[in-house]
Amino acid sequence: MDIDAWVWWLIGAVGLGIPLVMTAMPEFGMLAVGAVAAAATAAVGGGVAAQTIVFAAVSVALIAVVRPIANRHRSQRPELASGIDALRGRSAVVLERVDGSGGRIKLAGDVWSARALDTEQTFEVGQQVDVVEIDGATAVVM
To answer: What does the alpha-carbon distance between residue 115 and residue 99 come to, in Å, rounded to a whole number?
Structure first.
């Protein structure tokens, strides 16, 4: 039983796909694509040297191009603010006069104690303020 070279390349591609799935290392997928390209070269009558060159060229090209892009996306995690971090920069409404020593605001549907960032500044009832930071259970506003 004589199996054509392109079949061996496809078997190799499947063999490279298994560790791709098991380890989630994209490099195995890129090598598998190189093996498929070599199988196509064998199917159109390319010699062993041409098949090997196509496999190497496609694999190296994919690794050189795709891997840096994947690494860049992996390192850029979306910033999802939660808890008090999500409250920074939000607007609030003054419920009780806010100055450098204290007051009350309505922030994200809850009543918070608050103080002005600038101790000389005061905010009257009904005014819109911006939350600069959360200090313990107190919103610092401006």
So the answer is: 6
